[in-house]
Amino acid sequence: MFCGSVGGASGRRFPVLVACGEAKLSSGAFSAAKVAGVCNVDARNASSALRRLRCMSVRTLGPPFRTYLRQEGAVTPRKEGPSGKQPREQKWGMAPLSAEKLSDSRRSGPRFKFNLKMSKCRKPPLGSGPETFSPDVLADIAELFAKNFSYGKPLNEWQLPEMSEIFTYDHMEFNALLDLKNSLNEVKNLLSDKKLDEWHEHTAFTNKAGKIISHVRKSVNAELCTQAWCKFHEILCSFPLIPQEAFQNGKLNSLHLCEAPGAFIASLNHYLKSHRFPCEWTWVANTLNPYHEANDNLMMIMDDRLIANTLDWWYFGPDNTGDIMTLKYLTGLQNFTSTMDTIHLITADGSFDCQGNPGEQEALVSSLHYCEAVTALMTLGNGGSFVLKMFTLFEHCSINLMYLLNCSFDQVHVFKPATSKAGNSEVYVVCLHYKGREAINPLLSKMVLNFGSEMTRKALFPHHVIPESFLKKHEECCAFFHKYQLQTISENIRLFECMGKEEQTKLNNLRDCAVQHFMQKFQLKPLSRNNWLVKKSNIGCSTNTKWFGQRNRYFRTYNERKVLETLSWKDKVAKGYFNSWAEEHVAYHPGQGSFLEGTTANLDCHLWHVLEGKKLPKVKCSPFCDGEILKALNEAIEKSLGGALNLDPNFRTKKQYYCSCHIFSEELIFSELFSLTRELQDEQLVEPSNQIKCLLVGFSALNETKIQLPLEIVQETAELTTFSCSLLHDGDPAYQQLFLNCLLQSLQRLHTGDAMVLPVLSCFTRFMAGLIYILHSCFRSITFSCPTSSEPLRTCAVLLCVGYQDLPNPVFQYLQNVNELLSVLLHSDAPQQVLQFVPMEVLLKGALLDFLWDLNAAIAKRHLHLIIQGEQEEITSSLELQN
Ligand SMILES: C[S@@+](CC[C@H](N)C(=O)[O-])C[C@H]1O[C@@H](n2cnc3c(N)ncnc32)[C@H](O)[C@@H]1O
Fold this sequence. Notes:
GO terms for molecular function: methyltransferase cap1 activity; methyltransferase cap2 activity. It is an enzyme of class 2 (transferase). Its EC number is 2.1.1.296. By secondary structure, the chain is α/β, with parallel strands linked by helices. It has 29 helices and 19 strands. The longest helix has about 35 residues, at about 845-880. It binds S-adenosylmethionine. S-adenosylmethionine binds next to α11.
């Protein structure tokens, strides 16, 4: 089995998994037989092998194989209870268990010993002993794994309405469903005063599936094993997601929307490889680009373990944001995937942090779900499967979406995996056998026209066109999941108040039982690291130990969060919400700046390319800085200084700043520079006989500083220090062009061993990080000094670069080209700017990443310190005036 890549017509590469070394298999029967280990099968005796297989107990085969047989019609889902009753685990196409059946099952005694008893040839579950559990515990866990509702539609009754009815009416909510929504929110409201960390700790313990993830991670060596990994494994093993066609042709293509950090992909990889699924697998993924400076941290999951190492297979669209909610993205994606002949499986797991307004989660994410569904319906191949995460399904827009999916697919199921936290609202809509784009084309064309975040203003379908029979089913579905969620939250609240020893023991028992159930039911098999998507990761922000900054720093409960939202900026400053940053800055001393040792790596710039994207309105996130610090700084700039650049000149002068922190004098900076140069000479890295000089970039005057190095000053670049910080930070194309221009001029003046002092605003963007990488490659060592100014938002850091080596000519030429492009874009009012010119894989490597984090943190904390100090002084003096 190997993981390789194929080139598309456009030169794109997609990851391809080839199982068992068989690139193409002529028939599904052949593939299936071979996978199941029926030996010496070839194409001629494949059918007889399949017959033999059909005689084997389906439970002894891995899930993909069972799925295949079911699809082939060879096996009907077998009744699993020894009593011959309805199986406890819900399979597709079956009605949910009714309350009576459940209580029946509780009384029914030890019938629900797991299937282990029935399948004698099966090995005991991985990592667990031959434990037995009481009937109550078994029934409880069986129920946990049975949260499935199937729509089971009536023949020909659910049809798409006339086109004239589309997007013509306002939304009208359904009273019965609104009642469900309100009753759920009433219970959720009881959580508002709970301390978030304590509540999370509590629900982590009461979560019956809470031990599964760590067990799976260890016992089957699962890559990127998160909750999402386990959830998707449950879905994969519970529904025939992979269409027959993929088995028959030995080729599987999948597309994963809103997928960062990528656990669904890792889960699918595990499933295919560990069960030796006989096909080439190609995948493509979408998500909000975690490296795009204008994307909001709150909307993303900042874990790039997979993304950083598989960047070629993530499509971020023409504007590089990865935002699926634009029409341009959809068009670009269709183009990007055009070399895949058909897409068999699409997953869409989009969501974002709705903690600010949890009661309206469904409405808040409805536009995102619409875009995911339209994208899927536009790209999925006939007969394909679609898995869409949704939350509660109470609102008119969700009803419409569910109706659309029911009209577009042969089967629709709503499934809540056991490993999805029982107290949250998320469910997965599993749609099987797509009828094809042609079947719904006129509607899709209209839906695409309404693409964007505003599309849900008018209702997709009016009330009167949705059949009663559908509404009835849908209401049943909502009530089914509502009941479980309500029960879980109420039980969690009860246990939060008081949980006795006995209850703790019972919960522990349930959790152990859930692990066994999971392992047996889904027959997980180990996978060697060799078969992982990322065998060895050494790049990415996630490798940076400082990456996982503390979230929710300022509040502990939901109510506290709400109070914080109502506070004005001044109130927050007065209450000391930002003091920790200022304190950290006061503790910062000269000589603390980190070092970046020169690299011996060759600059392979012939493999690089320039990436352009939409002009940045603001820099909201950065892979090179702690998200919390950047967020606090942006708030400070916005609220205290009105965004800095738009500032009325009078506004700024009225503020007086007195800096209580260290200002590094020029003398201090030069003495550091000198000692660094001496060190290099001592280590004989630089010839002592060389007349070393120091180039000062952008310094206009030197206040009689005594230094021990001959100086050369690049006067014409003095503007560099006059640039002030704004919400755009170093993302301002004018600043970037000036900086690059200075750099190119300066580097031409340097000789081997020389030093350079270069002022820098910040390095939040990929563009600036690219330039630091260039410096990293052509100097022996770089460090920084910060602050150098007592005025807030003025350029406040300098890079001290020592031991100039060389800048290879091709790199110089490349940078010249970038510079020319910047100049053209700047002078043409173009809507785009250069975002990146050094590949992300290079910028995300250890030492450089650490250096940039330290540099940016020092700069941001210093800005914050000065702004907050100024604000606090103003508050104090106005209080004094009042008294
Ligand atoms: C729950 S996570 C997905 C987890 C993923 N399935 C996994 O297995 O690791 C939700 C993702 O939706 C993404 N998302 C939210 N809004 C989006 C948008 N407009 N476009 C693309 N992705 C979006 C978020 O960035 C986040 O990564």
